[in-house]
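Good morning C.,

I know you're traveling, so I'll keep this short. The sequence:
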Amino acid sequence: MKLVVVSAGLSVPSSTRLLGDRLAAAVGRAAAVETQVVELRELAVEIAQNFTNGFPGRALAAAQEAVAAADGLIVVTPVFSASYSGLFKSFFDVLEPDALEGKPVLVAATGGTARHSLVLEHALRPLFAYLKAVVVPTGVYAASEDWGAEGLDGRIDRAAGQLAALMTGLSAAPAPRATGADAFSAVVPFEEQLAALRPTG
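The tokens, ready to paste straight into the viewer:
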């Protein structure tokens, strides 16, 4: 299975990339995956040009194809002005409209303070719901004080396990509803239902 990490970190080294790498490693412990990282910092110029001329450059086109072909995504952004970064949003704006439909996605973010942790619920989750992705229940936010502290590893493992389960089809799915002749064959006659309720012996 193919796992793609989309990282919108701007610095080198980047805590955003570090979080993406740790999440990918945790998914790799839960399922057999081939991981590819898309660094949006390296695609910034091509993304901007795509908006003005309508055509992706070679590197951006390769990144778009990788995301569309992935069995699962990890998306990680730094927090800017209480939301995802403009570069992060711009990349998903230049994808094909249905590129993420039905695709399992793990959302994650980094920031300087824990006060921005709600960015996962207020910004990232609605964005990927709009893009018709299947967002795993656990998002991961890492503030500066979280690195090396208790709790982050547990959140990483829980979210990664949920993504791995979706990617491998282990998530519980409801049984298909009977239709047509099958629906009638599933009906139990009323007399039989009454007989089953009568005491025996």
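Safe travels,
E.
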